[in-house]
Amino acid sequence: MKDVISKKVLDMQPSGIRAFFDLVLGMKDVISLGVGEPDFVTPWQIREAGIYSLEQGFTSYTSNKGLYKLRLSISRHLKNKYGLDYNPDNEILVTVGVSEGFDLALRAIINPQDKILIPTPNYVSYGPLAELAGGVPVYIDTRKNNFKLSPKSLEEKIDTKTKAIIFNYPNNPTGVSYRKKELEEIKKVILKHNLICISDEIYGDLTYGFEHTPFATLTGAKKNTIYLDGFSKSYAMTGWRVGFACGPQDLIAAMTKIHQYTIMCVSITAQMAACEALQSGRKSVEEMKREYSRRREFIVGALNKIGLGCVKPDGAFYVFPSIKNTGYDSLEFAQRLLKEQKVAVVPGTAFGAGGEGYVRMSYATGLDKLKEAIARIEEFLPA
Amino acid sequence: MDEILEILEKDARLSPEEIAKLIKKDVKSVKSAIKKYEKEGVILKYRTVLNKELVREEENYVRALIEVNLVPQKDLGFDHVAERIYQFPEVTSCYLISGTYDLLLVIEGKNIHTVSNFVSEKLAPMENVRGTVTHFLLKKYKEDGVILKHKEENKRINISY
Predict the structure, then answer these.
(1) What is the ipTM of this complex?
(2) Contact A294 B157 (CB under 8 A)
(3) A52: Cβ–Cβ under 8 A, 6 or more apart, which residues?
(4) pLDDT digit string, tens, across residues A39-53
(5) What are the pLDDT digits (tens) for B35-69?
(6) Minimal Cα–Cα distance from B22 to chain A, Å?
(7) What are the beta bridge partners of residue B65?
(8) Which domains does chain A have, with CATH numbers?
(9) Does residue B20 sit in helix, strand or coil?
């Protein structure tokens, strides 16, 4: 049966830490800082809207692009919040989370052997999906620059085969984000080489201390940008699987072509709930954000104090401390910490080679648990 | 609302030092803000929220909501008579209400008799009380924003990207 599985999939790199994940999932009484989703449940009014839509009998397909009502709400929200103009008729596509969004984006633009730039450490699926779409991922190591992509390091990796960059800010796993001025510099390079910027801004709402700037709002950038966002992180709606892609009409049309054959449409219940999220959920977003911001202050202070140096993240709910002083590598650190103190973190190597020497800790966990986790980590560290 | 108040309202046990860390302010300014709030009466008290239905000795404890109709007094309105009522230790809350009655009281007592004694002997005979309606509380679901149900375990899986 050796030819059953396609060569492409056989060649796909399995996640090196699958075994570690299984270990965590099989263990009890673990304090987990390894979770990539909010510890809040979806605000009640949003859940209630989902339930109500079911009671009302909304159980059908929707338009491929998503409910018009939802696209209109997204369009208005982006206009109000960022001054961004996207036409709900043909520049917005409702996707199954941002995950589907960037898969569609990659498949819509890649010709065989096109190069896709990925600043690393990076979210796990970028590389494999770029390859699956026939492209060649090219990683830009950002470790030396405190995990920030510099215009220079970007320019160095561009050649004639370079088609696009997957740019994620605030970043998972590092929490790093960019101010408008920094983005302008990156934009110059992207436009100079006429690259497409697949901008994963799922954590945009969770930016602390300054305003998030969507890449598409930069002068001249909109025509080159596929803006990806969703409801998972800001509204604590991870399990509903609703995101959206916005971009130039031709790109959205291309993505919709694939989407209509593979997904058809996002679950109508989730779309109805998402409408409610935009209508009444903003207050909850702000409340959750303030809570994350406090935990961030706590955990960054505490980690630096016990000797796990970390850059203060600008956004998302992750810190990415260095564990180099401990003498362990990332996976070893995570395994030992789990076994000895029952605290789960994600080894940095899960996010590409650029993550060696670091671990990702999520502070989407109550303050009491964070305190306990820090105490246990301190206990674990070699004296 | 000031973030310090928001934090304390959620967890009054946090020390000024801890709060200062959470909102990145210096301890001194947090301390003086708290002092100011205490002095102004914005912060009235620090206490623990109990689910009394789970406290064993309180098995016989009952609560009632009482609607009270009043005769307002000249020059004094309702405030004076309200004061005479809310001073009773049995009264745990007292609100002036718009609508078909005037005061809403929350009464706590050991059992149904202590509550009815209070109503018939203390409250109803008062000169300015025109009438009362007593509702005994059967079950509490949520109080002051706290849901009185044991927290369910988090449904997230322990590790994800």
Answers:
(1) 0.78
(2) no
(3) A272
(4) 989 999 999 999 999
(5) 999 999 999 999 988 887 777 765 667 899 999 99
(6) 4
(7) B106, B135
(8) 7-42+283-380 (3.90.1150.10), 44-281 (3.40.640.10)
(9) helix
Q: Do A35 and B24 touch (CB under 8 A)?
A: no
Domain with CATH 3.30.70.920 in chain B: 59-138
Query: Would an 8 Å CB–CB cutoff place A36 in contact with chain B?
Result: yes
- Of 3.30.70.920, 3.40.50.2000, 2.30.29.30, 3.90.1640.30, which CATH number belongs to B59-138? 3.30.70.920
Predicted TM-score (pTM) of the model is 0.89
- A21 vs A7, A18, A350, A351, B158, CA distance in Å? 26, 5, 10, 14, 9
pLDDT value of residue B7: 93
Q: How far is B3 from chain A (nearest CA, A)?
A: 9
Interchain contact, A294 vs B161, CB within 8 Å:
no
User: What HEC string does chain A produce?
Assistant: CCCCCCHHHHHCCCCCCHHHHHHHHCCCCCEECECCCCCCCCCHHHHHHHHHHHHCCCCCCCCCCCCHHHHHHHHHHHHHHHCCCCCCCCCEEEECHHHHHHHHHHHHHCCCCCEEEEEECCCCCHHHHHHHCCCEEEEEECHHHCCCCCHHHHHHHCCCCEEEEEEECCCCCCCCCCCHHHHHHHHHHHHHCCCEEEEECCCCCCECCCCCCCHHHCCCCHHHEEEEEECCCCCCCHHHCCEEEECCHHHHHHHHHHHHHHCCCCCHHHHHHHHHHHHHCHHHHHHHHHHHHHHHHHHHHHHHHCCCCCCCCCECCEECCECHHHCCCHHHHHHHHHHHHCEECEEHHHHCHHHCCEEEEECCCCHHHHHHHHHHHHHHCCC
pLDDT surpasses 70 at B109:
yes
Percent of chain A at pLDDT exceeding 90: 90
Q: Evaluate whether A147 touches A170 at the Cβ level (below 8 Å).
A: no
